[in-house]
Amino acid sequence: MIALTVDIRKKVYPNGCCAIDSLAFAAQPGEFVAIVGPSGSGKTTLLNLVAGLDRELDGSITLHSRQAGQPSPGIGFMFQEPRLMPWLCVQENLELVLRPQARAHPVTPLQDLLALVGLPGCGALFPGQLSGGMQRRVALLRAFIVEPDLLLMDEPFQSLDAPTANQIRILLQDLWQRTRPTVLFVTHSLREALSLADRVLFLSVQPSRVILDIPVDSPHPRSIDDLSVQKLHASLLDQYPQLLAGQIAPSWEKPRIVHPGIR
Ligand code: ADP
């Protein structure tokens, strides 16, 4: 398990667009952190910087292993679309990300893992034969079978219908509780963030910074329909009506911590 420290003084794109200005937070090992912000608030920019896909920044991003001398941490990324290879069957798509040793001698056979994510006997099917929800289950399993230390998720369920997204959110919590990677989950849905995360960070409008940092204490797994989620959702929007537009009145000079006390 790894901790993550983000301290970005500025992220300016070559065209002069300042996407991030003074954005800082730390995630504890195994913590599930959701990042919520309006469109254009720098969520994807932040994930790309943390993933190391973009290294142009003024500031630092540090991953700390618990024990010194550990191999460099593994980072997984789950995108908005499942991005399965259409010419490979499900089993081959999964094997593609495994190291040769794990492919030859898996700790848990892939058939068992497919059954675990609700896809028993689907290993020989091709992505084109799967529904959007089934493809997302494969993509989720692919993200977890490499046992990442840090898993970055960029609105991975946004194009799914509500009941399917709900089922897959429960599956995500199950997989996360088994292996406990540190997770950064980007979403513009407050309910989704409150149902999944241990902690939710809210971003301002561009240039982005953290305007609010709240813990979510109720036990996992949660559904977006849970009373605790609904109550916290209502109380946050009552307290900060412009929160999802990236603003908290009257001042957002410093991140604020609130403890809504819902368990
Ligand atoms: P979000 O994911 O929250 O919608 P983004 O991180 O995609 O926001 O974008 C944040 C800001 O950075 C936006 O103003 C966007 O136009 C700008 N931006 C994103 N990528 C680039 C790029 N490659 N070049 C210039 N500006 C960019």
Structure commentary:
By secondary structure, this protein is of the alpha/beta class. It has two domains: 1-74 and 149-263, Rossmann fold (3-Layer(aba) Sandwich), CATH 3.40.50; 85-147, no CATH class. The chain contains eight helices and ten strands. The model has no long low-confidence stretch (mean pLDDT 89). The chain binds adenosine-5'-diphosphate. The site of adenosine-5'-diphosphate has 13 residues, from α1.
List the helices and strands and how they pair.
Layout: E1 2-12, E2 18-27, E3 32-36, H1 43-51, E4 58-65, E5 75-78, H2 90-95, H3 100-104, H4 110-116, H5 132-145, E6 150-154, H6 162-179, E7 182-187, H7 190-196, E8 199-203, E9 210-215, H8 227-239, E10 256-257
Parallel strand pairs: 3-7, 3-8, 5-6, 6-7, 9-10
Antiparallel strand pairs: 1-2, 1-4, 8-9
